[in-house]
Amino acid sequence: MVVTTIPILTMYPLSETLIHLKPLVVIVGPTAVGKSRIAIEVAKRFETEIVTADSRQVYRGMDIGTDKPHEESRQGIPHHLIDLVNPDHSFNAGLFRRHAVETIERLYQRRQLPLVVGGTGLYVRTLLQGLCEAPPADPAVRAQLHEEARTQGHDRFYARLVAVDPVTASKLHPRDTSKVIRALEVHQLSGRAMSEFQQRHGFSERPYSPLVIGLNRDRGALYRRIEERIDWQLAHGLLQETQRLLDQGYKRNCTAMKGLGYRQVAAHLAGEYDQAEMVRRFKRDTRHFAKRQMTWFRREPAISWLMVSESEATAETVDRVIHRVEQFLAGLDGVDAGQRSVEENRR
RNA sequence: GGCGCCGUACCCAAGUGGUAAGGGAGCAGUCUGCAAAACUGCGAUGCAGCGGUUCGAACCCGCUCGGCGCCU
Fold first, then answer.
1. Contacts 24+ apart (CB under 8 A), A90-95
2. What ipTM does this complex have?
3. Which strands, in side-by-side order, build the sheet including A79-80?
4. Which candidate, A109, A110, A229, A238, has a CA 20 to 30 Å from the CA of A220?
5. Mean of the pLDDT values across residues A236-245?
6. What is the model's pLDDT at position A10?
């Protein structure tokens, strides 16, 4: 018997009926697992573009530290939601969602399969499950609350939340000031408790038909890759990049500069510790981050996990990812075909 | 071969008779507009091993093992 390769079922651009189901392929996984590189190959195969779900790559001028794919490595594949704002701008999940939804719509209009890639769990969730209708962040209110938290101390500050929104308060630790601030901000802006908005919403939106592929590696191997990448970043100008951002006037305490790498390098440049200590902290904090990402993704439902072994060539991983995407599309096509035949039988 | 010092968790380490500090690393977790952020939790029933003294031993005594240093 001759074994034949299964012919590719789906044609590109996607059919009109398939587009109506809003198919969305998402690649998630911890930092340094190799998402970007694989995503580019997958995008080439499906003749589509990449929507980055990364809270740090949105900042202009932060390239080496955020491991932003280089122009050449992108191989002509357009990357969206990169270089959106300057580092002193506040960016957030709500803004991400708005931009991402628009970009995805444009891809559907061209009948392309959107490929979302990123390690920011909250951003991916807002895309797949929406965001409650609580008012967006207000910088003035937030700055004032921040000041009040500082002068009152966490216990008194937290007590205010207990008074106006006991449900949210019970879920937060008194010392978790940034989340207490957000909850008080919502109450101050809307007059309603954040828990009200959350209960009504419940992350129940399902705007897309998603396939979420989770890339993962053996913990030890992942940690080794993290350290190698950091050595590379330091050898390829991360110190200079950080210095340039500081020279441009971006403060160490702005969100962008508190990101991994920039924070430790800036502290080192300010003389807080020597180079060896900076490297040690940068690596450790990045390992901790990767671990937190895994904690987040582990409890996300319906992630199709793909373990990448150290000996495996990129092309091999890419093939496995492509296979799953094709199965997914074939499944959607099948659902669609099934619906059509049911309708035909009714006639 | 002799003498001396040392041996406490994965690593560093305090404790010298009253029931095992601390730090690092690690692990586990939380999360609805700053998320690469912010925040929470976790480690020795045992102090190299065995025996002894004592109401009570990481701590005192003896032997054994291991490390380091000096002497021959």
1. A90/A137, A90/A139, A90/A255, A91/A55, A91/A58, A91/A59, A91/A255, A92/A136, A92/A137, A93/A122, A93/A123, A93/A126, A93/A131, A94/A126, A94/A131, A94/A136, A94/A137
2. 0.89
3. A79-80, A50-52, A115-117, A23-28, A209-216, A303-307
4. A238
5. 98
6. 54
Residue A246 burial (CB count, 10 A)? 17
As given in the structure block, the two tokens for residue A304 are 């199709």
pLDDT for the residue A12: 73
Say how far A269 CA is from B51 C1', in Å: 59
Provide the whole-model pTM: 0.91
Q: A335: how many CB neighbours lie within 10 A of its CB?
A: 13
Hey, what are A301's tokens?
A: 């439902």
Q: Quick count: other Cβ atoms within 10 Å of Cβ A347?
A: 4
* pLDDT for position A334: 75
Distances (CA, A) of A312 to A12, A160, A202: 28, 54, 40
Nucleotide closest in space to A176 (CA vs C1'): B39
Residues ≥6 apart with Cβ < 8 Å to A52 = A79, A80, A81, A82, A116, A117, A118
CB-proximal positions of chain B, under 7 Å = 24-40
Model confidence at A5: pLDDT above 50: no
Q: Please report, for residues A67, A115, A166, the alpha-carbon distance to residue A56 in angstroms, rounded to integers and kept in the order given.
A: 9, 18, 33
CA A175 to C1' B72, in angstroms, rounded, equals: 66
Model confidence pLDDT, tens digit, residues A181-236: 999 999 999 999 999 999 999 999 999 999 999 999 999 999 999 999 999 999 99
Distance A277 CA to B14 C1' (A): 25
**Nearest nucleotide, C1' to the C-alpha of A90?**
B34
